[in-house]
């Protein structure tokens, strides 16, 4: 038995559901299928269960891509305020946490419900637990063999996401589809992911697991000021997750342990005010005591402030503002929030998200080589790319 649709969307996550409701508003007959047992799994677990659904400061500058201008068109045409208006229309209470990050006051499932209600309102159908074979090109569109039977459609939208968090159903299926239609891929790797340490670097910090402090992490010209969390395997926390997208093994990674301060001037002032106080106790007033103590056991001399010469004080300041972090790797896709790389956007229309190789084939969301920072940016890309594709598919 064969079913015919105007649009079939592969993937019932943020980008796929947004595409469906945008296409449905145009009167298109839309079917969304997903191999998982329920839809919107990443939405449900995001933001600690409160869904960081957008960021008010969204610009193209918060996205990584081999083709950095690609995301501008879609982001300009569907803004954070557009999605906020949708959230408000559904009576969902929300709050701003920090740095423009917006979260639901209640549970993430409110956002999934919003998307499903909107899709239902325009007649789009959503079906979970549906496995799909590799789509084939046929006259007038595409044919897909699925566990629901054979589907035919004029427009096919790939919204299958990346490789992040395979325990929630992530797979490389979208990349396989892209390849089968002749698309190039930008190499993928885990992004927004904890970093791992090994050898002496891990030994020096492992027993501090659970200690958190404010840092500014810098690598390859990017820097982020936020919290760092020491784990039993390495480092996590927002500052580390952010910089992980810019770091690869062997890259120089530095942490400013006194962010927002002029370390040299501050140490000189401490030397004048507290000449008899040891360095570890001075540092313990601006960072966790256990971390300050470890710094002074391994990286810095611990002695009364009066015993530091101007040169030693300068060296101490330099290390505190550019503490070298030698990471060995990342925790990988298992815990990564996003996948860097993906379908090469140079073969996709930035206006419609349509393949420039295969008319009627669209790519949206994380499957593309567009990756946002931590803090709601990846959801905003999902909404914006979904609306752009849905307006054309």
Describe the overall structure.
- Its cofactor is FAD.
- The protein has 393 residues and is an alpha+beta fold.
- Helix 1 (14-24) runs parallel beside helix 13 and helix 9 crosses helix 12.
- It folds into 2 domains: 2-188 and 340-390, FAD/NAD(P)-binding domain (3-Layer(bba) Sandwich); 195-330, Elongation Factor Tu (Ef-tu), domain 3.
- The protein is elongated and about 85 Å long.
- Strand 14 and strand 15 form a beta hairpin.
- Helices cover 30% and strands 24% of the residues.
- The strands form 5 sheets. Strands 1, 2, 7, 8, 9, 10 and 20 form a 7-stranded mixed β-sheet that branches. A 7-stranded antiparallel β-sheet has the order 17-16-13-14-15-12-18. A 3-stranded antiparallel β-sheet has the order 3-6-5.
- The two termini are 24 Å apart.
- It is built from 13 helices and 21 strands.
Shape descriptor reads elongated
CATH superfamily of the largest domain: FAD/NAD(P)-binding domain
What fraction, in percent, of the residue positions are helical? 25-40%
Tell me what the CATH architecture of the largest domain is. 3-Layer(bba) Sandwich
Rg (CA only): 24 Å
Q: Strand percentage, roughly?
A: 15-25%
CATH topology of the largest domain: FAD/NAD(P)-binding domain
If helices are DSSP runs of H or I spanning 4 or more residues, what is the number of helices?
Answer: 13
State the domain count: 2
